[in-house]
Amino acid sequence: MKNIILFVLLASFASILYGFHIQEEEVLLGSKCIGFGTVGIFLVAMPLFLIKYSRGKKMKDYMLSEENIRKMREETSENPENQ
Hints:
The chain is mainly α. Helix content is about 75%, strand content about 0%. The protein is built from three helices and no strands.
């Protein structure tokens, strides 16, 4: 999975760079390459990355809820010497 993400990311960057390179001669093809590279990064590589590295983690731990707010307030009141 890591290799697939890396391949998609490198191919997308290569497509974007190629699009900027040829955009002076062929505007339409250059714009398409830049667009496909951007789609590859944000609609393919990023979701694959998030699926791979967020597997097994609890989303509740990362959300701002009343319980987490109380925990943060308790932690700051316990360490007043840091201020």
